[in-house]
Amino acid sequence: MRAIQLTAPGTLEQVDVPTPTPGPGEVLLAMGAVGACHSDLHILDAPAGVFPTPMTLGHEIAGTVAEVGPGVTGWAPGDQAAVYGIIGCGRCRACLRGLENQCRTTPVGGIGLSRDGGLAEYVAVPASRLLPIGTLELVQAAPLTDAGLTPYHAIELSRPALRLGTHCVVIGIGGLGHMAVQILVATTAVHVIAVDTSPEALALAARLGAHHVVQAGPDAVEQIRTILGPPPDGADVVLDCVGADATLTTARSVVATGGHLRLVGLAGGTLPIRPTAEDIPPVPFEADTRMPFWGTRAELQEVIALAQAGVLRADVQTFPLEQAPEAYAKLRRGEIHGRAVIVP
Ligand SMILES: [Zn+2]
Ligand SMILES: [Zn+2]
Asked: Does one domain contain both 173 and 230?
């Protein structure tokens, strides 16, 4: 079968590999759709030894069961499913609480992270990772598993702060951010302020229900402050779906005293926290800062429910498998609006 593999650090190529055989407890999934995630670029850019090579990329996946391995019950060939990408140890304190995204044994273990992912014609995954999707299209189901789940989890962490009529700032209306806007609109009564450098992304945010859109730039903080009023008030929740130095500066400049700042994106920026800071915009007192990671299986089930209710829909741009390297190049150049989805 064809697969897109990380063959060496920085090298992504299409290769021919044997079709996997599902082991005990696993299913063989015929890949229907694979979201291209910024984390894949981090995997590509990582130095040797951090991720296994060769490894098929793709951790945001949905497909059709082709074969079930020994001992699998509840799934049969032809069933369609979304895949929860994390594989926790199942035994640690966090996993026992259902927080496999905080597993204390397996650092960032998962499909397309520590074992072959979905950028191939088939992938073998533990049946326990599958969630039914009903009649959802596979190209819609795949982005739910990360681009949908990650902001949903961040929003869940701030659920008590998302009071009616308060403000939530969403920075970065890309793969995650455009889902965050929809989740906020569908599940809260907050005013959503969307921030992005791209006018197309802001137009998308407005179409999806954002109440205010602000072009990122030198006067972005001032524009957001016009909506929120001066400190120590501000946004009750800020979701930084980019996570660069510039966006984190904006984030801490607009979050309210006692507000929630969620560093969701992995662009590698630094969030300096110290009690007094004259030289930089400080994180306000009592602010709750947190670095969410992906989400839980239970949350993914809820994200799928939102999509099935028709209130969460990824804006997708599709590519055939052989164009996966091109899709990642476009993602790196910032030319993807919404989510790039590869259709093997
Ligand atoms: Zn991802
Ligand atoms: Zn664990």
From this structure: yes
Coil, helix or strand at residue 201: helix
Q: Distance from the CA of 142 to the center of ligand 1, in angstroms?
A: 11
Domain-terminating residue out of 254, 274, 290: 290
Centroid of chain to Cα 320: 21
pLDDT number for residue 107? 73
- Give me the pLDDT at residue 224, please: 98
Helix locations, the chain, DSSP H: 38-45, 93-96, 138-143, 149-157, 177-187, 199-207, 220-228, 245-254, 297-308, 324-332
Q: Is residue 192, in this structure, part of any structural domain at all?
A: yes
CA distances from 230 to 233, 234, 329 (A): 6, 7, 40
Domain count within the chain: 2
Neighbours of ion ligand 1 (CB under 5 A): 37, 39, 146
What range does the domain containing 281 cover? 150-290
Report the chain (344 residues): mean pLDDT per 10 consecutive residues.
96 97 98 96 93 96 98 98 96 96 86 97 98 97 98 98 97 97 98 97 98 97 98 97 97 98 95 84 94 98 98 97 96 93 96
298 CA to centre of ligand 2 in angstroms: 16
Cα 162 to ligand 1 centre (Å): 25
